[in-house]
Amino acid sequence: MPEILLLTESELRACVRLDRCAIDLIADGFAALETDAVVMPPVLGMELPAVNGEVDVKTAYLPQLDTFTIKISPGFFDNPAKGLPSLNGLMVTFAADTGLLRAILLDNGYLTDLRTAAAGGVAARHLAPRDTRVAGVIGCGVQAELQLRALQLERDLERAYVWARNPESAGRFAERQTHALDLEVCVAPGIETLVAESQVVLTTTPAKSPLVRSEWLHPGLHITAMGADSPEKNELDPHILTAADRVVTDRVSQSMERGELRAALAQGVIDSTFRPDEIGAICSGAVSGRESDAEITVCDLTGTGVQDTVIAEHAIRIALQNQAGKTLST
C-alpha cells in the first residue's frame, strides 16, 4: 500500500496562501465545472439546531487532476463565546485512478477559508467594476478579512468600509486591516451608508434574515454574497435578484437549495425556471462578465466541492515540493 501524507494546519499555512495563483486555480476549477466530465454530487448537510451547529460534506472529481478530495466542514456558531473557533474540519484526498487514500489534511478549515476567498477573487475579476476604488464588507470575521484581501488582489482599492453588529469588533477589524492591507478602512455607521459609498459590497455573515435591501442598489454596484451556504441563511433582500441587471452563482442548483436563490424562491420572488449564469461559464469564456460600468451585478457563492478538490491537490503538490508533513504507512 502507498504511504499516506499527513499535513497539519501550520504546515498547510506555510505551503499555501491567498494569492493570484490560488485565484487562478479556483477559476480553472469553475471553468471545468461547466463540462460534463466533472462529477460533483449535492452537498451533504446536517443541521444541528440544538447546538447552533451544522456539518457540510463536499466533494468533486475532475478528470484532469490526479486526486479527488472529500471535505468535512463543521460549523458551531456558539463556539466563539467558549473561546473556540466557529469553523474547523479536515480534507481527505484519494488517488483519482485507484481510489487509494493519498493524504489527510488537518487544516481546521484553513483551506476552506482560502478557497472561499479565492472564489470571491474570481467573482471580482469578472464582475467588479474595473475602476473599483471603494469597497464595503459586512461582517468582521476571518472571511471578511480574506474576501477584502482577495478583492485587493484584483482591484486597486483606495478605501474600504466595514459594518458589523458589534461596533467594537468592527473598529478592531478596521484598525487591523488598515495596517495589514495598507488601506484606509473605516467603520460605516450603517449598512445603507456602506452600500451607498461602495462600488463593491462583500457580505460575509451567517445572517438568517436580509442585511442588504434592494432599494439601496445603485448603478455600477457589484455584490459578492458568500455567507448563505445552508438552508437557514440569507443575507440579501430577495428582490435584489430581480432588481439587479445580472445575477451569477457558483452552482445554480446549490444556490436554489442553500444560497440566496433559495430565499427568493421561498418567497415567490423567483420561480424554479430562474436560471442565472454560473461563474464557470464566465471563466470558460462561454458568457461574458461585466458588460458595462453601470451594470448592477450580484454573485452568490455557496462553496463547491470542485474548489475543495482543486485547493487540496494544490496544497499537496506544494507540500511535497517543500518536503512538508509526515508520511504514514498502512
Which secondary structure elements does this structure contain, and how are they paired or packed?
Blueprint lengths: L3 E5 H7 L4 H14 L10 E5 L4 E8 L6 E10 L13 E6 L5 E6 L3 H18 L6 E5 L3 H13 L4 E5 L3 H14 L3 E4 L3 H7 L2 E4 L18 E4 L14 H4 L2 E4 L2 H7 L1 H7 L10 E2 H5 L13 E4 L4 H17 L4 E3 L2
Parallel strand pairs: 1-6, 7-8, 7-10, 8-9, 10-11, 11-14, 12-13, 12-14
Antiparallel strand pairs: 1-15, 2-3, 3-4, 4-5, 5-6
Structural overview:
There is one protein chain. This protein is of the alpha/beta class and 330 residues long. Helices cover 34% and strands 23% of the residues. The strands form 2 sheets. The protein has an 8-stranded parallel beta sheet with strand order 9-8-7-10-11-14-12-13, with helices on both faces. A 7-stranded mixed beta sheet has the order 2-3-4-5-6-1-15. Helix 4 (142-154) links the parallel strand 7 and strand 8. The protein is globular and about 60 Å long. It starts with a strand and ends with a strand.
Write out key terms for the chains shown.
ornithine cyclodeaminase, domain 1, 34% helix, seven-stranded mixed β-sheet, 2 domains, globular, alpha/beta, Rossmann fold, eight-stranded parallel β-sheet, 330 residues
